[in-house]
Amino acid sequence: MHLHRSHAEQHRHSRAFLSDVVIGMSDGLTVPFALAAGLSGAAVSTGIIITAGLAEIAAGSIAMGLGGFLAGRTEQEHYHSELLREQQEVEQVPEEEKKEVRDVFAGLGLSPESQELIANEMARDKQKWVDFMMRFELGLEKPDPRRALRSALNIGGSYILGGLVPLSPYFFYSLPLEALRWSCIITVLCLFIFGYFKAKATGSAPWSGAIRVMLIGSAAAGAAFLIARIFAG
């Protein structure tokens, strides 16, 4: 039982970590890429592009991380509010809660006698009764109390790593268009690889997922570059 619980916890943490990385990395690769392309199209210096890019990465990672933190806190608050409600219902309307237990097992095909036996046995331990109702009636798992902070760090860190990819060539080339050329090559390749593994991890077709992510990022950067060219011109 302990091994099963440990395996379930590890699986949940891995899934949560992957979700955070996908959220942070997808925006981190795309938004700074579009910003750098737009500024390159406006023919500003690489120094300005680097400064603006780093500022955007800092602001974006904080904003994305804060969003992940608030989402984690909201999940915890929702769970605890539902837990309190279930505890009150077990105390105040136990017969109705027993009926809900019977309904769960009726849906699994158990006989009325077995349903009644299980409901009565479960009512002997109110804590396990409440845990059962949370999990099987409401479909809620107890959230990790450290989830909010972990999510913030995972998303923010992934955004920073992703954002440095399109910006990196500007540290080595003084001409914006030359830096943009290398930025496009590196970032499009990273978008393709990221899209491939993202689709594979989520059970989608990896090649179509890779192409889709690559095209979205390229379209964003291309639109920013053309708009900047038009207005700069």
Structural class: mainly alpha
Number of strands: 0
Counting DSSP H or I runs of 4 or more residues, the number of helices is: 8
Query: Biggest sheet, open or closed, and with what strands and sense?
Result: none
DSSP strand (E) fraction? under 5%
- Helix % is over 70%
Tell me the overall shape: elongated
Please state the average pLDDT score.
83
Number of domains: 1
Kindly, what is the distance between the CA atoms of the first and last residues, rounded to a whole number of angstroms? Answer: 68 Å
What's the helix-strand series?
HHHHHHHH
Concise summary:
This protein has 233 residues and is mainly alpha-helical. It is built from eight helices and no strands. Helix 1 runs antiparallel to helix 7 (176-201) and helix 2 crosses helix 5 (126-137).
Salient structural properties:
single chain
Report on this structure:
The chain has helices at 2-41, 46-92, 94-107, 112-122, 126-137, 147-167, 176-201, 206-232. The protein is mainly alpha-helical and 233 residues long. Helix 3 packs across helix 4.
